Amino acid sequence: MARNWSFLGSVFGGVAVAAGAFGAHGLKDHLSSEALAWWQTGAQYQLAHALALVLVGIVAERRRSRAIEVAGTCFGLGIVLFSGSLFALALSGVRMLGAITPFGGLLLLAGWVALALAARTPRTTA
Question: Can you tell me the distance from the alpha carbon of 78 to that of 104, in angstroms, rounded to the nearest whole number?
């Protein structure tokens, strides 16, 4: 599973860079400044947490634990819900989509807590 986390993080990272560039160049004349800010926030958080997923993959190669799997799952789902809802909100203007964003944020926070717990888990020799 470790390679899957690093792969997923790499994909999310590439998509984040593309989304940021698209927002800065392709959407700047089509969205309000508020919607562009939502878009950029989504791209920034996606990139940061894509790197966190790559880190999860690296840690998972060294330490197998439930906590590291929980961290990867939380980061992956958190990116989809947090950034995805901000992208959808920016493009659609449907403010109800903003209600999804905090759930993604909570998952991102849970991912960091799980990663911290994984880092504190003693290394097993197998």
Answer: 4
CA distance 32 to 75: 29
How would residue 81 be classed by pLDDT, with cut points 50, 70 and 90? very high
Tokens 């991102």 belong to which residue?
108
With beta carbons less than 8 A apart as the criterion, state whether 27 and 54 touch: no
Q: What is the chain's mean pLDDT, rounded?
A: 93
Closest Cα partner for 43 from 19, 64, 60?
Answer: 19
Tell me the pLDDT tens digit for each residue of 22-78.
Answer: 999 989 889 999 999 999 999 999 999 999 999 999 999 988 899 999 999 999 999
For the chain, the domains span 2-120
The DSSP code sequence of 26-80 is ISTTTS-HHHHHHHHHHHHHHHHHHHHHHHHHHHHHH---HHHHHHHHHHHHHHH
Question: Measured between alpha carbons, how far is 45 from 108 in angstroms, rounded to an integer?
Answer: 9
Token readout for 123 is 């290394």
